[in-house]
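Tutorial sheet, problem 5. The two components below are modelled jointly, 373 residues in total.
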Amino acid sequence: MPSDSSAAGLSLDPPPPALPGRLTLFLAFARMSLAGFGGVLVFARRAIVDRHRWMTADEFNETFALCHFLPGPNIVNLAVVFGARIRGLTGSIAAFLGLLAPPFLIVTTLALLYAHFGDVPALRRVLNGVSCAAVGLLLAVTWRMMLPLLKRREPVALAMLAIVFVAVGIMRWPLPRVLLATIPLSIAATWLARRRKAA
Amino acid sequence: MTGPLFGIALAFGWLSLFAVGGAAAAIPEIHRIAVDLNHWMTDAQFADAYAIAQLSPGPNVLIVSLVGYHVAGIAGALVATLAMCVPTAALAYTVSRLLKRAGDSPWPALVQAALVPLSIGLMAASGLVLAFAADGSIAAVALTLGAAVLAATTSLNPVWLLVAGGVLGLLGWI
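Model answer (structure tokens):
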């Protein structure tokens, strides 16, 4: 644990330079969150790996992989797991609050303004334009994530992608039901495909 | 006021457990809950909420704060955000404590390979649902596609595309 590391320099793993305290954690996550327009992940990687060197790139990737495949907002999970690794439960809470409290205040202020001025025609036109562009950005991100699957021509992965897209996007079936059916199906199909490839 | 707050907490707390692939993948279900099921807001208001969430810094999950605010003011925003984040944060905390090291991932490569296409399919569904909510004209569809192509093929900062969309909207072209 960090508090023991000053004892005699006898720790087996050389500790990363100066582990952050709770206030530092809060401020660091607040800073990356407020820099993060359209997603915080890029800024989190830059701050944690490049600027502060609190994690190596590999450690960051492994931590993110864990957070990505647990349910819930990935970046919130990342903050909590990272805070826990550094300072235990209170570290988790500090990172969680740093990540969410400042942008929450901003977004609620915008919500308040929207509630008062949302019907002003000029604002309506601006928001409409912004939302159209924002949808385009989401489509671009999705396309970029899909590219590796298209390049490798994995029929199972592409079929599962299509099934979920139709079930949730077109049929508008409830997400829990769709996932309870497709997660086991996808795992089984992926396993079978890999076994066939290996044989 | 306890009525709507309880409904918000229950809806988003339950949804968060199925938010595989993060907030962007959960958009269709958030839309289903807020627009189709509970009639908390219209399609246009949902598209506005998405735009505002994209315009503000911070995690994408804050769109649930806007939905919550729309239903029950500041308290609604707070309850929606906590319901969406706390249960899964507690789960992530517990799992990471059990694992101790980042390298001891419980997710074998097989499960990862099986989940990736599902979360991409959900994000594509999000794009479709939002496009139906936001794009009411040919010009709007053209703007969406134009932004998609520019974002996919250049390294332009996305904020400029949002600003450009806002300006085109203000000029009345959308």
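Marking note: Confidence is low (pLDDT under 50) at residues 1-11 of chain A. Full credit if you identified this.
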